[in-house]
Amino acid sequence: MQSTTVKLNITHSKRSMTAMEIRFDTSQTIASLKNNLSVRFGTAAEYMMLKLFNENGEVVANMSDNDAQLGTYNPHDFYVIHIIDLDPSTVNIDNLEEVPKYQISDEAYNQRDDTFRKFKEQQQKLHPDLVKPNKAPVDEEFQREFIDGIQVGNRCKINPGDKRGTVRYVGKIPEAQPGYWVGIELDEPLGKNDGCVKETRYFQTEKNHGIFVRPNSVEVGNFRPYGEDPDEL
């Protein structure tokens, strides 16, 4: 039986980002869908609760049956899957105010002898000419050894994270840090640009489908887009 795919938008309860128009196979189970989303959003599958919303923001279904197929819930293109993160150890990474902070008054801090501030003051007294060393400059040939075998047109994935796409540029980027870069046209809108770096175009793609990464994070191979690999659920 021929499989059917659907384009869905993905939101997350503890992240402000939205993944737009991600293509899924409706024959995959909810368990495999959770594993797929775990790679993209970092929430472990066992801590996910999934809700399906229609284009009007109305709840269509609670996707609670891990053995059910995605198509069971009758999703349409551009419906939204909302990930609710139930892991008590995670916090909202977009709102650091939720992170508990250890605070101490300046007066109490100054009275302590085991602080970095006291150490710094002592070092300045002992070595008044001490200058903070500069960071070593990045070499112009940085990661040159990793570009062998990476060619424009290669299918690839980015590690970690398993984002997939096609290589569109290999080389240096004067607008960025020295060394070598790989420009990738992603299959899904999980990138940061459209192939431009500071108004210089290196390749053309849709908004948020472009990304530039260091060569050592690129793995070249026969990586098909999600939903098109017969070995994937």
TrEMBL record:
<dbReference type="GO" id="GO:0043014">
    <property type="term" value="F:alpha-tubulin binding"/>
</dbReference>
<comment type="similarity">
    <text>Belongs to the TBCB family.</text>
</comment>
<dbReference type="InterPro" id="IPR045172">
    <property type="entry name" value="TBCB_Ubl"/>
</dbReference>
<dbReference type="InterPro" id="IPR029071">
    <property type="entry name" value="Ubiquitin-like_domsf"/>
</dbReference>
<protein>
    <recommendedName>
        <fullName>CAP-Gly domain-containing protein</fullName>
    </recommendedName>
</protein>
<keyword id="KW-0963">Cytoplasm</keyword>
<keyword id="KW-0143">Chaperone</keyword>
<feature type="domain" description="CAP-Gly">
    <location>
        <begin position="172"/>
        <end position="214"/>
    </location>
</feature>
<dbReference type="GO" id="GO:0007023">
    <property type="term" value="P:post-chaperonin tubulin folding pathway"/>
</dbReference>
<dbReference type="GO" id="GO:0035371">
    <property type="term" value="C:microtubule plus-end"/>
</dbReference>
<dbReference type="InterPro" id="IPR000626">
    <property type="entry name" value="Ubiquitin-like_dom"/>
</dbReference>
<dbReference type="GO" id="GO:0051010">
    <property type="term" value="F:microtubule plus-end binding"/>
</dbReference>
<dbReference type="GO" id="GO:0005737">
    <property type="term" value="C:cytoplasm"/>
</dbReference>
<dbReference type="GO" id="GO:0005634">
    <property type="term" value="C:nucleus"/>
</dbReference>
<dbReference type="GO" id="GO:0031122">
    <property type="term" value="P:cytoplasmic microtubule organization"/>
</dbReference>
<dbReference type="InterPro" id="IPR000938">
    <property type="entry name" value="CAP-Gly_domain"/>
</dbReference>
<dbReference type="Pfam" id="PF01302">
    <property type="entry name" value="CAP_GLY"/>
</dbReference>
<dbReference type="GO" id="GO:0007021">
    <property type="term" value="P:tubulin complex assembly"/>
</dbReference>
<dbReference type="InterPro" id="IPR036859">
    <property type="entry name" value="CAP-Gly_dom_sf"/>
</dbReference>
<dbReference type="Pfam" id="PF14560">
    <property type="entry name" value="Ubiquitin_2"/>
</dbReference>
